Amino acid sequence: MSQQATTVPGTMRAAVLRDITKGLQVETIRTPRPRFGEVLIKVAACGLCHSDLHVIGGAISFPLPAVLGHEVTGTVVELGPGNEHSGLQVGQHVAGGFLMPCGQCEACAAGRDELCGPFFDLNRLKGCLYDGQTRLAAQDGEPIYMYSMGGLAEYAVVPATALAPVPGSMELVPAAILGCAAMTGFGAVRRGADLRYGETVAVVAVGGVGTNIVQIASVFGASQVIAIDVDDEKLEPMRAYGATAVINSATQDARAEVLRLTGGRGVDVSFEALGVPDTWKTALDVLADGGRMVPIGLGAGVQTAGVEINRTVRRSQRILGSYGARTRQDLPAVVDLAARGVINYRDVVSRRFSLEQAGQGYEALRHRQVQGRAVVDMSL
Ligand SMILES: NC(=O)c1ccc[n+]([C@@H]2O[C@H](COP(=O)([O-])OP(=O)(O)OC[C@H]3O[C@@H](n4cnc5c(N)ncnc54)[C@H](O)[C@@H]3O)[C@@H](O)[C@H]2O)c1
Ligand SMILES: [Zn+2]
Ligand SMILES: [Zn+2]
Fold it and tell me: What are the names of the required cofactors (predicted)?
């Protein structure tokens, strides 16, 4: 039996991508309904992440038409069947993580949500949920695919495995960044790097995700956090998030500066948060002997980066890719860090757009005009 709040309208507004040459357009489509193990939320806000830009720009292919948007907060309005043990209630505030584990595959059984096979195969490649169907449709019934939960809409169906309760004391709109930008930062620090107290860190590219890596590395006890970017405006607020130094790699020699700051050693851990050869090079250049480089940035399609073979081998350096986090364990931990004020989620959100302005928001992101994160605020 599903449990539903009284009024869920039959149609809703959503930002739909039909054609990459035309961009996002707001349409009235059917309101989705949750199936087994799924929850319908009324979306409060959805963050604008660079990963969506790869799809909007056509660099990463995805079935169209589609609704993008994969870091959300909202209020539970309907529980599908099979939620008896999810602990979720109608009326509750929740954050939705982009990485939605099926909960049933071998990787999920091992707690490795980030490696969930059905998530890649059915959602990232086919835009569907775990019965192989999308929950979204145009008014004439034409299927519309979902990038994660399809958060750029008034309502979204989310598997309960990807939801964490958000306490009433938290501001729901900026908390949208928890489901990707902050969760990915947590995954990189906690899972990818397994950062230890006192280690030194560099973060290359401090956009939405990189800003969160800076603050999470700092609260995990890094003795130095060196923020590196090509944009002074992005670097300027980094000290407030715990950076101990900032470097503009467009105007300064990042390797020389990091060596100077670390007594000639380089950093124990370098995070890369853009996904281009240039940032990979910087992240490897600043790494100490025996260090760990943790790449988070996704390339625009199939992309490769140069790695100096002998240096990596002879200096026993490790490259540890990190995708999202273990949603079921880590998203509640990230919400808790934000709720207790250990990490700052409010100030990370520097710009708010209405659903109609979502396309403009992504254009601003493409042109590097977004400090931290921009969100679509559904109340605007
Ligand atoms: N691994 C994951 O789970 C995961 C999750 C979310 C996002 N991503 C990926 O992470 C990357 C970052 O996403 P975001 O939303 O933070 O992007 P963003 O657009 O907010 O930030 C990008 C930053 O890179 C900086 N930059 C640009 N060129 C640079 C250069 N040459 N050197 C240093 N800095 C440079 C920009 O000034 C900006 O601050 C994207 O590739 C995105 O697809 C990965
Ligand atoms: Zn994202
Ligand atoms: Zn799985």
Answer: Zn(2+)
- Which residues are paired to 271 by β-bridges? 203, 294
Topology annotation, domain 193-319: Rossmann fold (3.40.50)
- Positions of CATH 3.90.180.10 in the chain: 11-181+325-377
Q: Give the closest ligand to the alpha carbon of residue 273.
A: 1
Q: What spacing in Å lies between the alpha carbon of 127 and ligand 2's midpoint?
A: 15
Q: Is 213 in the pocket of ligand 1 (CB under 6 A)?
A: no
Taking a C-beta distance cutoff of 8 angstroms, is the pair 97, 180 a contact? yes
Question: Could you report the per-residue pLDDT of 174-202, keeping only the tens digit for each?
Answer: 999 999 999 999 999 999 999 999 999 99
Q: How far apart are CA 129 and CA 143, in angstroms?
A: 13
Strand partners, 45: 73, 377
Nearest ligand atom owner, CA of 206:
1
Tokens of 96: 């939705």
pLDDT (tens digit per residue) in 61-86 = 999 999 999 999 999 999 999 999 99
| Topology of the domain covering 11-181+325-377 | Quinone Oxidoreductase; Chain A, domain 1 (3.90.180)
Cα 162 to averaged position of ligand 2 atoms, centre (Å): 14
Taking 90 as the threshold, does the pLDDT of residue 8 lie above it? yes
Question: Exposure of 18 by Cβ count < 10 A (0-12 exposed, 13-18 middle, 19+ buried)?
Answer: middle
Which residue from 46, 48, 51, 327 has its CB within 8 A of the most atoms of ligand 1, so it is best to mutate? 51
